[in-house]
Amino acid sequence: MTEDTLPIPWDQYYARGREKAESLGNRGPLRFDDSGNLVQDILDAYHETGFYVFTDVLSADETAELVGELNALIANAPVSRDNPVDRDGKPSKFAEYFSISEDEPGIVSLVSHTIMLSDAALRTYAHPKILRMAASINGPDFIPFHEAIHYKASHNGLPTRWHQDGRTHWTEDGAALERPDGSGKTHGFNLSVACSPCTPENCLWVIPGSQHQWRLARGGKFPPITEQIGAAVPVLMEPGDCVIVNRSSLHGSYPNRTPNHRMTLLLGYHKRDSAIGTSTTNVHAFVRPGGPEPVTYSKADVLKRARMIPLAIDARRQHYPDETPFEYAGEYTGDATWNEAARAEITAEGNEYWRGDITL
Predict the structure, then answer these.
(1) In whole angstroms, what is the distance from residue 57 CA to residue 67 CA?
(2) Could you read off the pLDDT tens digit of each residue along the chain, which spans 360 residues?
């Protein structure tokens, strides 16, 4: 499929996208070598395409527990921006964290800072295979980025424009500072856990290899999401699968016209040395995405935010006592014991953990 043959009927576009996605060679189970690192062929495929789908990462039981809690959160969404009650007339417990359209009733597209709102999400954040994979790519002292639910409603799910998340580590001409092997300054990756089937009609689409050049350099623009792009491929997943997407990759999602919603849990990770001392603009350290606000990340900022990793590990250890927990090698400040005092501390108004989110 080339640009000069487009546009074509959308059902054909989706079918061709599925065929391309299944032939890329960047999907399969998480596999580690004898040293506990991702095997080289996975790393090579990720660095070449800019994303990788890991299948069957979460067990069926953990997936069901996570989906149940996130579905309950979505069901309690406010009916509109100005009316903080849900569709049953009950108060929406976390109304301020929902990104909702101006429609009546409003359409939910995002729920920010999910690991503060769902214990199952907090535990998934500390899944030992996920954290081992993060350490393989971003180093043993990797740090957090941001967490959210991405929700695309059935029938009228909102599109997400084509965009690149990375806004910092580019040359003036838009070349990535990240080298082809993943070394150098990077923008980290978004990890999305599938909480529903993710099909060509409702899922994220990525342009393989697009992480090497910033489209906005020298006055450039992103293509409109109404446009079919021949090189784009869908991120196909089933519940319990995960995908990592380089935050420099060009990606977006089309409107969902199907009867099936799409829900993913976003968990992001950075290299520590890509954050400390970096000056940029932050759009994530807000109740809902906002800003952009100028910021320079100090070591103290980064170590405070890194505390959420060992806290989540301890929360998971308590829930899964027979599982071997991941051992985080990075520095952090604060206590790493998960209890009600820790919950109160990270959710205290004006001092919520997400105020340290790290946009790069």
Answers:
(1) 14
(2) 556 689 999 999 999 999 999 999 999 999 999 999 999 999 999 999 999 999 999 999 999 999 999 999 999 999 999 999 999 999 999 999 999 999 888 999 999 999 999 999 999 999 999 999 999 999 999 999 999 999 999 999 999 999 999 999 999 999 999 999 999 999 999 999 999 999 999 999 999 999 999 999 999 999 999 999 999 999 999 999 999 999 999 999 999 999 999 999 999 999 999 999 999 999 999 999 988 999 999 999 999 999 999 999 999 999 999 999 999 999 999 999 999 999 999 999 999 999 999 999
Closest by Cα among 269, 260, 267, 147 to 202: 260
CB 205 within 8 A of CB 1: no
Q: What is the domain range of residue 11?
A: 3-356
Domain count, the chain: 1
The answer, yes or no, to whether the previous bond of 105 is cis (omega within 30 of 0) is yes
CA distance 312 to 308: 6
Under 8 Å between Cβ of 213 and 175: yes
- Phi/psi for 326 (5° steps) reads -70, 140
CATH of residue 188's domain is 2.60.120.620
The two tokens of residue 164 are 């690149």
Could you tell me which residues are beta bridge partners of residue 237? 198
